[in-house]
Amino acid sequence: MSITPETDAGATWVKSSYSNGDGGNCVEWAPSAATHGTVPVRDSKNPDGPTLTFDTQAWAAFVNAVQRGEFA
């Protein structure tokens, strides 16, 4: 994982379907960047802020763990 202060201006960001409806607690990721081997993740309330960048294998492992309920 790395932290980057800038994001790819051409990236298409997708908001988590688990984000609440009042505009808070929202996480976005840029699936288009995954084709380059990294997955950037950011706070949708601060789109110009830093992003966390994960390699695709680490991101897939995290998503699978969430789907299995390992963090509940």
UniProtKB/TrEMBL annotation:
InterPro entries: DUF397. Residues 11-66 form the DUF397 domain. Pfam families: DUF397. This is DUF397 domain-containing protein. It comes from Streptomyces buecherae.
